[in-house]
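Have a think about this chain, tokens included, and walk me through the fold.
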Amino acid sequence: MRPAIINVMDKAARRAGRDLSRDFGEVEQLQVSSKGTADFVTAADTRAEETLHYELTRARPEFGFFGEEGGTREEGDGVHRWIVDPLDGTTNFLHGLPQFAVSIALEERGQIVAGVVYNPLTDELFWAERNNGAFLNDRRLRVSARQHLSECLIATGIPFLGHGEPARYVETLNAVMGEVAGIRRFGAAALDLAYVAAGRFDGFWEFDLNIWDIAAGVLIVREAGGFVSDTAGRDTVLQTGEVVAGNDRIHEKLRKCVREADPGPQSDAQTG
């Protein structure tokens, strides 16, 4: 049986996902026009967060709430906090690409203790509770067992207009491309991490992510037996948004590959 807190998160994610699925159908129709689509998606994103806020605070009114769209809405009891991305993969959604998700994490005393990533179009719920494993719907998840980068399919995120450092990213991309079997950029970090947990991707790296993008996914990877760190090997991903993920061997090889291409500030490199 699923833990009670996962049931709460599942219900909220599915309610928000139902609305997003309906709105996604409208977006596909709007693609015939150059006007109105961006505003429509912004409204869909906001509505999804409102649904999550309503469902989660109704179930646990004492918890704080922090969302991508509305920021901190409640401080709560100072112990528990929901961290929510109502629509991870907004640009995909905007262009009618069926790769997006609802992401919900529960933080307790500064640690992520539960997380769900829900793709409403495929009805796939990736979830994990700290120390209790990771699951896809009701099937236990494990990261892939590949040991050599040359066999691996690796996911990443690419900087875009106004976000990230293209020159920095290109250096790391050049380094990784020559070592792996393939690289994919799907545009939804929460799902990328969930796919690492499911063994669909063997590894993942990206810079400049936000806490709501990755809080749930990081826990799901770790509970599936994977490793997640920054490029220096430290557990700072939720603070810095710098993420490398994979199984024990691939995480370390990918981390070193990215780190050698992008050593960062000298003082930072010395601590790594």
Notes: The first strand starts at residue 64 and ends at 67. The first helix runs from residue 4 to 30. Residues 4-132 form a domain with the Fructose-1,6-Bisphosphatase; Chain A, domain 1 fold (CATH 3.30.540.10). Residues 71 and 83 are 9 Å apart (CA to CA).
